[in-house]
Every structure is written in structure tokens, then in C-alpha cells.
Amino acid sequence: MLSPSLEDYLEELYKLYSRKKTLKVRDLAFNLGVSSPSVVKALKKLHSSNYIIYEKYKGIKLTEKGKVLGKSLVKRNDILREFLIITDSNCNPEEEAEAIEHYLSPSTVKTLKILSSFLKDNKDILTRFKEYRDKDA
């Protein structure tokens, strides 16, 4: 199991990979707002856990294991963001999803995904929920 920080690195690597971008230390550092030495330290840990292949000056490649987990991490973030948007949570959905994603179990994330789909398919219930939420605000 990866730490929340390493999950963030792998998630960002997968996003770059899915955009057909070359995986580079400097891009990862820029996107995550961290230093290059911090990125290298994280890459070494991801390499030793077989999520990536990393060789200094030769780039970064996701292993199949890294692609599978990276994709699920991106999907988890998307589910949480979508739930926050659908329910009109009074927050920045990107920041909030990032803040909570590491602390929810897979079954809770799955439940939020189902609830989001249910609310999208049942606009009347979504409207009633928002009215109920707002009546005591």
C-alpha cells in the first residue's frame, strides 16, 4: 500500500502518461509543486515497489502494475470531484477531492459513485436534497 504522497505521484504520472506525454522529473515537480529532489526520492520508492521503471537520465516508464493503480487513482479522484459538483458542495471540488481521496475506503468511493449516478438519473430527488440542505442554511 502506498502512502498518500506516493499515490499523488503515481496519479500524476498516470495523467501525464494518458496524455501521451513523456514522463519527466521536471514536469512532475512542476505539476505537483514540489522540488526535483523530492520527485526523485518518490520515483525511487515507486521503482522499488515495481510501479514504475526509473533510471536517472533515461526517463520514467509506468509498469503494468503502475498503469492499473494509476488509472484507479485518477478514477477515484474523478468520482469524488463529480459527487462534490453534483451536490453543489460549497467548496473547490478539485481541492476538496484531493484532500479527502486518500482517507476513504474503496467501498465508500464506490457508494459515492453509485449515489452520484442515482442523483443524476433522478433530478427530482437531487432538487429535493438541495432544497432540504438549504432550508436550514
Q: Mind telling me the C-alpha Rg?
A: 18 Å
The portion of residues forming beta strands comes to 5-15%
| Strand/helix succession | HHHEEHHHH
Task: Report the end-to-end length measured between terminal Cα atoms.
Answer: 40 Å
Main sheet: strands, sense, barrel: 2 strands, antiparallel
The tally of helices reads 7
Instruction: Tell me the structural class.
Output: mainly alpha
Q: What is the average of the pLDDT values?
A: 94
**Major sheet: order of its strands?**
1-2
Unreliable runs, pLDDT <50, ≥5 residues? none
Describe, in plain words, how this protein is organized in 3D:
The protein is mainly alpha-helical and 137 residues long. It contains seven helices and two strands, in the order αααββαααα. It has a two-stranded antiparallel ribbon. The longest helix is centred in the middle third of the chain and has 23 residues, at 64-86. It starts with a helix and ends with a helix. The mean pLDDT is 94.
Summary of the model, kept short:
This protein has 137 residues and is mostly helical. Helices cover 70% and strands 6% of the residues. The protein is elongated.
How would the blueprint of this fold be written?
Elements: H1 4-18, H2 25-32, H3 36-48, E1 52-55, E2 59-62, H4 64-86, H5 93-100, H6 106-121, H7 123-135
Antiparallel strand pairs: 1-2
Helix pairs in contact: 1-3, 1-4, 2-3, 4-5, 4-6
Brief descriptors of the model:
70% helix; 2 strands; Arc Repressor Mutant, subunit A; 137 residues
